[in-house]
Design a protein that fits this description.
This protein has 283 residues and is of the alpha+beta class. The chain folds into two domains: 4-118, Aminotransferase class 4, branched-chain amino acid transferase, N-terminal domain (D-amino Acid Aminotransferase, Chain A, domain 1, 2-Layer Sandwich); 123-282, Alpha-Beta Barrel (D-amino Acid Aminotransferase, Chain A, domain 2). It has eight helices and 15 strands. It has helices spanning 24-28, 46-59, 68-82, 123-128, 151-162, 205-217, 229-232, 265-282; strands at residues 4-7, 10-13, 31-39, 42-43, 87-94, 111-118, 130-136, 167-172, 175-179, 183-188, 191-194, 222-224, 237-242, 246-253, 256-257. The strands form two sheets. Strands 7, 8, 9, 10, 11, 12, 13, 14 and 15 form a nine-stranded mixed β-sheet that branches. Strands 2-1-6-5-3-4 form a six-stranded antiparallel β-sheet. It starts with a strand and ends with a helix. The structure holds pyridoxal-5'-phosphate. Pyridoxal-5'-phosphate binds next to helix 6 and strand 13. The site of pyridoxal-5'-phosphate (PLP) has 13 residues, from helix 6 and strand 13.
Length: 283
């Protein structure tokens, strides 16, 4: 089992130098990415990730030059060549390689790179819950695009880390938006609340699975409505969702306990339903 890269259609070692100096992803962050979890040697929810990659490309006016089948084959190849059973596959597509100038270059071919690595287990944290930190959302206004530009997210995550927290939960204009690499949900009186789909959040694959599949199957109602940090203080439960963090309970926010500070029963039910779905798809 070994971590691998995939560049120009070839499998390479992750340590190899592979990105040309004038790749626009390198110079401008001009590109998109996706990350898909691999469980038991199989990709989870790959169709949703590919669909979102096409949308991100459209929004950035980067031509889509791979078919769904090609994306699936490349993911499969990385799994079989690496021997990784439990991991994460990242893919990046940049606008291409061209002499540095802000405007779009003509006649360039978008450049795809990928990597696969084993995943670190979060199972203990998922059992116990983690701390969150409320911070101002300083990102740009197209958070709906999964772009390679992640500076706002990186600075926010580091603030959380420096404060001994797992994730920063961001606030824009008095509204709770999302985490730096996750969506945010809170539960009050049995109802799930999360920020509506807009340019201010990424429409997470895990978020969509919760809203479209897990919550309805458990008879839970989800309100996709804006809410304030003051309202979060009244939450009974809270969690973040994401491909790598899955459904991660938040037991305190900026040192204030969420509910009684324990992982709540609805979060537990959602976690169990998510694990069952993984087992069904990838078992
Ligand atoms: C800003 C942001 N929001 C939400 C998510 C969760 O999305 P998904 O569930 O598709 O991983 C991510 C994941 O990377 C993210 O970076």
């Amino acid at each position: 089992m070994r971590s691998l890269g995939f560049v120009d259609g070839k499998i390479i070692d992750l340590s190899e130098n592979a990105v040309p100096l004038e790749d626009r992803g390198h110079q401008f962050g001009d590109g998109i990415y996706e990350v898909t979890r691999v469980y038991n040697g199989k990709c989870f929810a790959l169709d949703r990730h590919i669909e979102r990659a096409y949308r991100s490309l459209r929004e950035l006016k980067i031509p889509a030059v791979y078919t769904i089948e090609e994306f699936e084959e490349m993911h499969q190849l990385l799994i079989s060549e690496s021997g990784i059973q439990d991991g994460a596959i990242y893919l990046q597509i940049t606008r291409g390689v061209a002499p540095r100038a802000h405007g779009f270059p003509e006649n360039v071919v978008p450049r795809l790179t990928m990597s696969i690595r084993p995943s670190t287990s979060h199972s203990k944290l998922m059992e116990q819950g983690v701390k969150g930190l409320l911070i101002p959302d300083e990102r740009w206004l197209r958070c709906d695009i999964k772009s390679l530009n992640l500076l706002g997210n990186i600075l926010g995550k580091q603030r959380a880390k420096d404060a001994g927290c797992f994730e920063a939960v961001q606030i824009r204009d008095g509204i709770v938006t999302e985490g730096t690499s996750s969506n945010f949900f809170m539960i009050k009186d049995g109802l799930l609340w999360t920020h509506p789909v807009s340019n201010l959040i990424l429409k997470g694959v895990t978020r969509s699975i919760i809203i479209e599949e897990l919550a309805p199957a458990l008879g839970l109602t989800v309100l996709e409505k804006s809410f304030s940090p003051e309202f979060v203080q009244k939450a009974d439960e809270a969690f973040i969702s994401g491909t790598t963090s899955e459904i991660m309970p938040i037991i305190s926010l900026s040192s204030t306990l969420v509910g009684d500070g324990n992982v709540g029963p609805i979060t537990r039910k959602l976690q169990q339903a998510y694990q069952s779905m993984i087992a069904k798809q990838c078992g």
